[in-house]
Write a structure and sequence with these properties.
140 residues, alpha+beta, 3 helices, 5 strands, elongated, disordered C terminus
């Protein structure tokens, strides 16, 4: 995978250095975090047919079948991404834990470093001060 600006941003924010392997790993984490966030939004919104004007053309059984297949796909993607994000993040020497949240209204991916937590929100990483609960960027 190529090194992305979001990967560089995470590496800079967490003071991980600029080694190409670290930047590549951070880029892969960021790509997976974007997808994980989208999957959580899809889970929350349900099958697209639920909000379609043509929903009345389908029987309740058809809608239930489509929703069941949708739910299975979302669950499978969730499991795969959870494993991928955790595996990638724990390869960074400074990461002590990974927290994943299914609530797409908040931060879905949280990386915990020694004494610090970085949350993925609105397509950006932010430092969350574990003592005060305030969200901010270092030095801001």
């Amino acid at each position: 995978m190529r090194i992305t600006s979001k990967g560089r941003e995470l590496a800079d924010l967490a003071h991980l250095g600029d080694h190409p392997l670290v930047l590549n790993l951070c880029s892969r984490i960021c790509a997976a975090a974007v997808t994980y966030e989208r999957v959580q939004e899809d889970r929350c919104n349900g099958h697209p047919i639920q909000s379609s004007p043509s929903i009345s053309l389908y029987s309740n059984e058809s809608i239930a079948t489509m929703q069941d297949a949708w739910d299975k796909r979302i669950e499978r993607q969730d499991e795969q991404l959870s494993k991928r994000i955790t595996k990638l993040a724990l390869q960074l020497p400074a990461v002590t834990d990974v927290e994943l949240s299914g609530d797409s209204r908040g931060c879905t991916v949280k990386l915990l470093f020694a004494g610090k937590r970085y949350d993925y929100t609105s397509r950006a990483w932010v430092l969350c001060d574990g003592h005060s609960g305030e969200v901010g960027v270092p030095g801001a």
